[in-house]
Amino acid sequence: MTADDWVAAVKSALLPIAQPSDAAPMARYMKNIAPFLGIRAPERRRAVLTAVKNLPVPAVEALSDVVLNLWAEPEREYQYAACDVLDHHASILPESFLTNPIHDLLTTKPWWDTVDLLGTAVVSPLTGRYPAAIELMWQWCRSGDRWLIRAAIQHQRGRRNHADIGVLTSMCSLHAADPEFFVAKAIGWAMRDASRWFPREVQWFVDHHPHLTPVARREAERGLARVG
């Protein structure tokens, strides 16, 4: 089964449930980064899963072609669908997938929506499975690209008390004073999540970074207030 067949299957699942009346408001909410079909997340995920669950498990190279082809489609739901497909097949992905194609997907038509979906579907599970991938996360963290930085800072989200708080605070320290909103928000969310299991370390981070951006500080302090 070719990548084009997969894309056709996804299109056949999504086009019948598109709501044109919702498309323009959804595009505006995402700052018109792309046009939309007008499909809400729960309906999209159900439709994509139904479309792909009975298809043969693709080889890794074929899966890469599938997601790249979906990413090339103009409407934003197809990029979301690519993330759904990756999430469905996360167990077969090798460490090298982070370099190719995930690096390019993070920086192609990027906005917080796709960056965070790729983080949940691929970056977090693969960095958890392959500890050596931390070197790549450091490369992203030092890259100067706001989306790679955001993905690196958030690569441990969802790990609860198994997070490496030392790595997390070190990555956040590199960008504590960065005024870039999406980087600051990533720091704040990462610290807010970590505060539930590592309140002392998060409090230390906040106290020892006087130039921490207000948005990052606010989110971190919300987390600390919740556990305090």
Labels describing this entry:
228 residues; single chain; 64% helix; globular
Structure description:
- 64% of the residues lie in helices and 0% in strands.
- The mean pLDDT is 96.
- It is mostly helical.
- The protein has helices at residues 3-14, 20-29, 41-52, 60-72, 76-88, 102-106, 112-129, 134-141, 146-153, 165-174, 181-194, 199-207, 214-227.
- The longest helix is centred in the middle third of the chain and has 18 residues, at 112-129.
- The chain has 13 helices and no strands.
What secondary-structure arrangement, pairings included, does this model have?
Elements: H1 3-14, H2 20-29, H3 41-52, H4 60-72, H5 76-88, H6 102-106, H7 112-129, H8 134-141, H9 146-153, H10 165-174, H11 181-194, H12 199-207, H13 214-227
Helix pairs in contact: 1-3, 1-4, 3-5, 4-5, 5-7, 7-9, 8-9, 9-11, 10-11, 11-13, 12-13
The largest sheet is:
none
Q: Which regions are unreliable across 5 or more consecutive residues at pLDDT < 50? A: none
> Averaged pLDDT, please?
96
Structural class: mainly alpha
How many runs of DSSP E, i.e. beta strands?
0
Give me the strand/helix succession.
Answer: HHHHHHHHHHHHH
Give the distance, in angstroms, between the N- and C-terminal Cα atoms: 54 Å
Q: How many helices?
A: 13
Shape estimate: globular
* Oligomeric category: single chain
What is the strand content? Answer: under 5%
Overall helicity = 55-70%
Radius of gyration (Å): 18 Å
Please outline what is shown here.
The protein has 228 residues and is mostly helical. The protein has helices at residues 3-14, 20-29, 41-52, 60-72, 76-88, 102-106, 112-129, 134-141, 146-153, 165-174, 181-194, 199-207, 214-227.
